[in-house]
Write a structure and sequence with these properties.
By secondary structure, the chain is α+β, with helices and mostly antiparallel strands. About 20% of the residues lie in helices and about 35% in strands. It contains 2 helices and 6 strands; from the N terminus they run βαβββαββ. Strands 4-1-5-6 form a 4-stranded antiparallel sheet.
């Protein structure tokens, strides 16, 4: 099972918090972040990265159900 990770490039402000927290999952490309791959192994830190995004630009889904960012 894997999670899908997306970064909304129109919402991302390029703070780099996600890339600092999980460089194996997120990378900064110019002024915005991108997932390294669209699918990742389940990891609580991926959800932490989505939660900590100041622009709320990261979405994590599991089987089509949104699980991050958490409320």
């Amino acid at each position: 099972m894997s999670w899908d990770v997306k970064v909304d490039e129109h919402t991302c402000i390029g703070s780099g918090m996600c890339a600092a927290l999980m460089p194996e999952v997120f990378t900064l490309d110019g002024a915005v972040a991108h997932p390294v791959t669209p699918s990742v192994e389940p990891d609580e830190t991926v959800l932490d990265a989505a939660d900590s995004c100041p622009a709320m630009a990261i979405t994590v889904t599991d089987g089509g159900r949104e699980i991050g960012p958490r409320p």
